[in-house]
């Protein structure tokens, strides 16, 4: 790293020590539990639709409504939180989202398609903004910048658990209570996790500000817009990888291996995210972000070799390793560069950018798989990653204090 990195007087605290800090276990666990429905919804909706003899087109439409409404409403809820308080907005949105999931569970989506669309829209749009709220609170509950950096990395790595345990929770609930129980479980789990988070003291005492209002929020900062575009490319990489690796497994005559390869990618992110907690903070976060974006691209490039499944597994693991570091660096940039009074909304825009990129990457890779090959689909993942890295080099994200805090 560059000579601009801060040097702590004592060695940086590892993940386990950060987890011992007051409030951290509750906030992190509450956020993960409360966000679990986002990892449950795709499979829960599909399972419920198929149980009512609905087709995949209907399931895809409902999942699309859920995902789009979540992406669109996230920054809106983030702005409301920035101008008011965390706890009331989180609790109200959790109740509404739970109502949406319960309605979906109670409906026959085939016979009541319009009502099911409305329910999916409510469930997605009212998703509590736990992820942005958590990242805003780190600076309040941790004592140093390096501990905040460790928390960002831990957060980025552990969120992979949502997409590992979410489908497992749906399968477990469906086995115990029937096909619609996955949606009911999503409602209950999301509500419980949000209550656990929102009633913690840091969330209860946090106050936003009605000052520094601007219709564009964090989008008035050109640096923030460019950062969101980079994250769109990062999301595109993940979406294209998921589709491409599935096509690769089918071409290898081992369709079931796709799940294991995706899990290997997620496990790589989890392990690397925990390891990255020991990396010191940097004064030149923009420079670090550029380097990490290059490493992110390098991690996905070897997948184009298309070795057999046994050799593809370690490559899938390695490809996931840079993601938590890239995201942790992006979190740190948002904390430093977001205009005053817009940090929660800025983190929500990060999620939206990543989600939109993921959807675009999935779509492009799907076309590439159908018309060319799995190698072409994985090639799109590398292209998205390279595009993101290229944008960090061209835009030259600046150190703290420039083009951002003032909203210029």
From TrEMBL:
Keywords: Membrane, Transmembrane, Transmembrane helix. GO terms for molecular function: transmembrane transporter activity. The chain crosses the membrane at residues 32-52, 58-77, 89-107, 183-203, 223-245, 257-279, 291-309, 315-335, 347-368, 374-397. PANTHER family: MAJOR FACILITATOR SUPERFAMILY (MFS) PROFILE DOMAIN-CONTAINING PROTEIN, PTHR23542. This is Putative MFS family arabinose efflux permease. It comes from Haloactinospora alba. The lineage of its organism: Bacteria, Bacillati, Actinomycetota, Actinomycetes, Streptosporangiales.
